[in-house]
Every structure is written in C-alpha cells, then in structure tokens.
Amino acid sequence: MADAKKPLGQGILKGLALTLKHFLARPIITVQYPEQTLVHSRRLRGCDLVWDPERCTACCTCAKSCPQGNIRIETRLRPDNTREAVVFEIDHGRTMFCGLCVESCPFDAIHMGKASERATYSRESLVLPKEKLTISPERQPSGYFRPQFEAELPPQTLLVYGGRASEGPAAPAAPAGPPAPAGATPPAAGAPKEKVGVK
Amino acid sequence: MDWLRWIIFVVIILAFALSFVMAFILLERRIVGKFQLRPGPNRVGPMGMLQPVADAVKILLKEDITPAKGDRWVHRLAPIVAFAPALLVFAVVPFQGKGPGLGFSLDQPAALADLNVGVLYIVAVSSISVIGMIMAGWASNNKYSLLGAMRAIAQMVSYEVPLVLSIVGIVIASGSLSLNSIVEAQSIPFILLQPLGFLIYFLGATAEINRAPFDLLEAESEIVASYHTEYSGMRFAMFFLGEYAYALGVSAIVSVLFLGGYKFPFGLLPQSFIWFLAKIFLVFFLMLWVRSTLPRVRIDQMMAFAWKFLLPLSLVNLLLVAAEGVSTIGFGWAAVGINVILAIAFVVIWANRFYRVKGVTVG
Amino acid sequence: MALRTEPIVVNMGPQHPATHGVFRMRVTLDGEVITDLEPVMGYLHRGVEKLAEARTYTQFIPLTDRMDYLSSMSNNLAYVLAVEKLAGVEAPPRAQYLRVIMAEMMRISNHLMAVGTFLDDMGAFHTPLLYMFREREKLLDLFEMVCGQRLTYNYMRIGGLSHDIPPEFLPALKKFVRDMPGFVDEYDQLIRENEIVLARTRGVGVLPRALAINASASGPVLRGSGVKWDLRKTDPYLVYDKLEFDVPTGAVGDIYDRYRVRIEEMRQSVRILEQAIERLPPGEVRSDVPHLVHPPRGEVYGHIEAPKGELGFYLVSDTGIAPYRCHIRPPSLINLTALRDMVLGMKIADAIITLGSIDIVLGEVDR
Ligand code: SF4
Ligand code: SF4
Predict the structure, then answer these.
(1) Does the complex come out with an ipTM higher than 0.95?
(2) Any chain A CB within 8 A of the CB of B301?
(3) Is 1.10.10.60 the CATH number for C48-342+353-366?
(4) Domains of chain A from N-terminus onward
(5) Nearest to B289 among A8, A19, A29 (CB)
(6) Interval A133-165: pLDDT, tens
(7) Three-state DSSP class for residue A2
C-alpha cells in the first residue's frame, strides 16, 4: 500500500482545506449537557436498580446470578407459607450494572433503572436498603428485559440522525455528503436554551 | 515631555499585551474548538469570555512547588527570564504612524521607542527567552525538563538563522531597520513582494515560539510538559502567559514586517491601529489553523527542515531581493509577479529535492 | 575527540500522558535515541483469569467487557464462542448474523479510537480524534440501543444474544453504513497524504515480516507487516465464510502500514455490515441453553479476530458450573512484546507513536 505520490505539500494543504471547511460550516457535534440532553436508550442500564417489593417472592435467583455477590437478601416465611424479603440490599458502589439479576428474576421484580445521575459524597450512601430501592419518581425502571416498560418509553435520540429519534418526514433535511452536521444545535449565545428531546 | 510619553506608552503596552494575551488564550481555545466540531469553553461568562479570568484565579491559588533536589534560585528566576522579553518586544512595535489616521492624527509614530535599529532589537530580545527555558530545564532536576531544554536550545539556535535572513530581505527592500520606516515603505505589502520571505519567516517564527507543528517543547505525549514539567501555580502561569505573549509578539511583528502594519492594504483607507490589531488576529488565526490540523514533526526532522529547507530558501530569497534591488526591476509590481512565481517554483522544487535528500521514502 | 556521555534512563510512565496511566516503559536514551526499552506492565492487573474460576460461565461475560474496554463486544463474542464450543451448543442463525454485525461495528469503533489516539500521540492536537469520535459516538448510540450501555455491553450470551435488536436499529445502522465510507474518505483527506504524517511514520517502528510471525503478533500489526492472516478467513467462525470481504495488508510493516490497514479494515467492515444487514434472517436469537451450563469434561481453545488481533480463550471444564481454568490470549499483550524490537535505535517520539500504532488497551494487557 505504498503511496508513490511525490509529497510537495499538497497533503498538508488538503488537510488544511478540510479543517477550514469544518470551521466555516461549524457543525457542532457535542451536546451541551445540562441544557441539552439526549434521550437514552429504552433499554438503558442506568445507574440504578429498582426493586418492586410487591412482586418479589424472595426467591433469591437474582442474588445467585449476580457475578459480584452484590445483592444481600434475608428472607422470612409468612404465615401463608410465602416468603418475603426482610433485608434486600444492593451495594450500588459495587454493582457493575451488568443486568444479569434483572435478566434472571422470574417474577419481574427487579429492574434496571433509567436514571443516569447518581453522585453522592460517600460510599456508604450507595448501599441501598429495601426502602430506598423501590420505584419512585426519581427511580423509574427502564425497559431492559422488561418489554412491558420498553414500549412506553420515548424513543432514543440517535446521533446518526443528528440527535433526532428517527429519520421521520418532519426532520429537517440534513445536508448530503460526509460532513453532515451531526449532533444537536449548539446553544446560541443569548438565545433560549433549546432542549433536545425530553430527558 | 519624553518621560510622560514613555509612561503613557508603558501603560498602553502593558494593558495591550496582557489583555491580548488573555484574549488569545480564550480565542485559541474557542477557535480550535470550532475547528474540532465543538464549541470550546462557553460556560464562564457570556460566550466563555471570563474563562481566562477563572483560570487565572485558579492558577494563582495553586501551591508553588520547587523540586527538593532542584536548584532553587535558578528555578525561581527562570519564569521571569522567560517571560520578560516577551513584553520587551512591544517596545518598538509601531501601533500607528505619523500623520492623519482614521479618526485622529498624530505628530509622531505611536510607539514607545521608534528605534532606528528596531529589527535588530527584536531579534536580540526575542532570543533571550531560551535562556529562561534552559534555566528551567536545568534547575528542575527532571529528565523530561532537561530533554525539553535541550530541544529548546537546538530549535531556537537553528531557526534563528533563516528567520534573520528572511528579515534581511525586508531590510533591503525598505532600506531601514526601524519598524516604523518599514511600515511606511510598504506601499505594496511585503507579503506580496517577498512571499518566500514571508513563508520562511512565518515557519521560522512558528518554530521559534514552539507552536504546532513545531511544538516539540510541549510534546506532552513525549516529554510530558518539557521544561515546565516541575512548575506549578504562578510560575507555571508565567511560562504559559509568556508563550502566548510570544505568539502575540510574533503576530505583531509579522503584521508589521509583511502585512503593512497599521496601513490599510494599498492605502484604500486611512491608517489606523485598528488595521494593525486586525492583522494580528489574522496571523494568529493562521497559527491556530495550522495547529489544529497538523501533527508534530520529530526533532531531527525539525532540525533538517531548518538547515536543509529553510536556510537554502532564505539565501535564495536574499539573493533574489538583492538582485532586484540593484537591477532596474526595483520593488514595484513587476517584482511582485516575478517573486510570486519564483517563490512557488522554488518551494516546489526544493520540497521535492528535500524529501529525497532525507530519504524517508520507504516502500 | 569523542565526548564521554552517559545514557539517561527515563521512566516513561506510569504517570505519563502517553501511557494512559497504567503502563511504564523504562527507556535508556542516548540523547534522543533509544538504546534500550523495557516495558513494565501489571498496573491494571485484576486477576480476571482467576475470577473466571469463581464465576459461572454466564457470570463471566460481564467481566470480559472489562478487558479490552474499547471492543467489549468482541471480547464477549470470543468468550461465548469458546464456551459454546466447549458445551457443544450453537447460536441460531439470526444470532450469528447479529453477532457478525456487532463484531464489525465494534471493529470500526475500535479502529476509530486507535487511529485517533495514535494521531494524538503524534501531536495532532485532537482534531482527527474528534472527527473520529463523531462516528464512534454514533456507533456507541447504536450499541446503547441494543443492550443498554455504551461501553460494557454484556450482550452476548451462551447460545445466542441477550435480546433481539429493537426495530429502530436496522434503519439507523443502514444510515450509518451509507455515510461511513464518506467519513473514511474524510479521514484520508486529512491524514493519508499529509507530509508530516508520512515523514513521521514511513520507515519508523518497522516490524519485519519474519519478526512479526516469530513474535506471534496478530491483527493489524501482523497484517501491516504483509502477512495475510485474518482468522475470519483462515479459520472462519460464525458466518464469515458466507460474507465477502478483503484482507488488507501492508508492505513494509511500518507505522504507516498499520495505520493504512486499520483504515482499510474500516472500509471492509462497512462492506461486511452491508451484506450482513441484507441477509439477516428472522427467527430466534437465543437457543435453549440453561442459565447454568455444565459443559462436558474437556478443554477448548476458541479464538476470534478481535479488532486488535487474535483474541483467544482457553477453557478447561470439569463438568462444573464454572470453568476449571480459564486462560486468555490477549492480542494487545502479545503485540506489545514486539515493541522493543520496533523502537531500538529510534527517537523517543518514535517510541511513543509506535506504542500508539500497536493499539494496546491496558485492561487487556494486564487483565
Ligand atoms: S447488575 Fe449485575 S452486578 Fe449489579 S447487582 Fe445485578 S447482577 Fe449484580
Ligand atoms: S429474583 Fe426477583 S423475585 Fe427473586 S428475590 Fe430477586 S428480585 Fe425477588
């Protein structure tokens, strides 16, 4: 694959032309995070595990399937001979969000969450006991292995379509050719901050 | 009232240099960002304009570290030695010429000192900074710093030669060493009259102030941060500001020497310092454009480039200008035509030849 | 009179911008020329092979994501193929095609990163890197769509895949496949003929053909040295024997050849993707394999052509639910062993870009 062309600087000039083209066209490809957000995948394995005490039968399949041994369950026999989890604790600092527990739960009682912002000041606060694991407005389940949730979530925005969900007819025509401006519109100075999709 | 004039100009120059350095730091980050399909810093203040201020505050609050086994006093002095000459350059740069200009007119050139050896002064002053770099590299007692300082000496010494030779062409054409007279002499901007000289000067100056693709001193993927690896806080900031001050200085000198300084091209509009500032930005933009496109060259290639490519071409350029000076061609539009054609021819021929001389072609 | 000079020993890394924080090169320098180089690794050792013995076969899949984190899908694939070989199961046809699609997307994404960071090491101040990230982000988006995460996919399962692809996936991938050749041309315009790149990379870091074979290098490093060896052709797995593609090779084995091989491989991957999308059959994506596989007693070596080279898993089963022994052949590590031979007598700057051109990920080198 030898390129036998004589280098006289035309390679450098070509490169300069390309960068100048991008400079003038200004297709900003980055997303200005707090103001603009992209919609995550419906199957997002977010930084959360959401647990549904109603559905859980304390069968411990999830704990057994966890590669990290990360789910701690203590169970008790109820008078009607069913089991309930007295302790159900997941260390969110140790989990790798692999989703195997969600995949293996036979009763759809544990789900991946769809939150992506989970910063705290201490490791201890990442160990969530069962009261904190339940579904709440901040802790919504995602559609990972849960088709019943997946159908209801908004479609993911894709950078292939320049930050839109799909190549629908309503989408503004993207310029043809390679340097199609991908990504969300940059926030113009002073202009109202635009939201790319709902979070 | 000479002293009053000096004080005013010192203040103007300090304000100009420091504010422009800040602006350059911001501009560099914003413009390179645009080249790279991203907006660049845009959080602090409107359009990120306060970013340099925020950075300055941050850097001033950092601890000033001196390496335990380093040479303490040399280590402390080095940033000052490296930074001060950057400001000295502006002493002879004319901001606006004598006579009527856009808006107001002056009875003498607006420069701190219109030295009649201005060019010589600039060449002399701008090579002082390398001493600061060597001091820093040596005193840090760090191998990366030392390697960086060694690269700095090699680079500075080699690029000084073609750089000065290309200025000599200007001096021949304008017949003066004073920067103000050089600007006055440019009824045709020297970039047209001596395109080859401009190319050599621009490349040499890029190398001299360590900007891409000759930024070997800052080759962070190779020698970390080179001579300022061991610096932090305020002293690091001085090196950092110094680099931008040099970039500003070189932009200013290129505008003065080759782009006609404060004059509007071909005198279509009256002279003004505004044109001068605009030209500075233009030159700086050119540097950023190059920086955001090209990878870095290797140390031996850079030396080869100075000695085998730029030096012969600068001699050719000198010969050409001198020949035109003594012949009947003179420095008019005829010379422009001849020089542009010859410049392209020489660069192409020599680039071809240079490539074969180095023998890097494989396969 | 010859000056008496002393060589300097420079510890490049582990805290060095070009060694990614977890790799060290003990370089002996004579001025700027390298007279000796000793790679020191192990800063990121996590004992992945040992961990495999304490995990069930399925539970180990997410850990393979964390070896070469720039091509997790390929790691998944290599591992599940080895386990499938051991357990004697096979994935359904749709899963096989989807696996090919994922592996090729991964290859493009990995090569974008490899070339981008390599140019960064060369000092191109992030511009090519950002141009390449533009496309890599699109791919990561697609990965996120199918499996919920952008880096650690955990998508392959023994006997298939964890999910089928969502309906939006194929149109988006088709659009990507349509656009990608144009983008590759753009990279070529920026880099291919650039004189500085040529001067820096031609004839530098040469790994001669014989040495490449002796060092048992693989992937773009081996092919850059002119050896036409690609496991997708020489030992076809999945459905690669039904797909049409070329194996690009270099001529000299220098850095430039490796770079060209990577760029060409992206083009070929796009070709494979086109064909795989077209032929993707309907049906199941996961055959009926229990969560706890008990493979018969025996040992197996499964390997694939990962983006960085031959990635192999050697597994021994004692009929238990976990491998008795797991050994991994990481391409980065084996390719890295040739580094010393490539850089002796070169300059420091060459060592850095040679390291960049091998394309290592320390997570995989140290495991
Ligand atoms: S996501 Fe994976 S690591 Fe985390 S608790 Fe579930 S099985 Fe364990
Ligand atoms: S597998 Fe599901 S039902 Fe069983 S203990 Fe876990 S969460 Fe509860």
Answers:
(1) no
(2) no
(3) no
(4) 49-139 (3.30.70.3270)
(5) A19
(6) 888 887 888 888 888 888 788 888 887 777 676
(7) coil
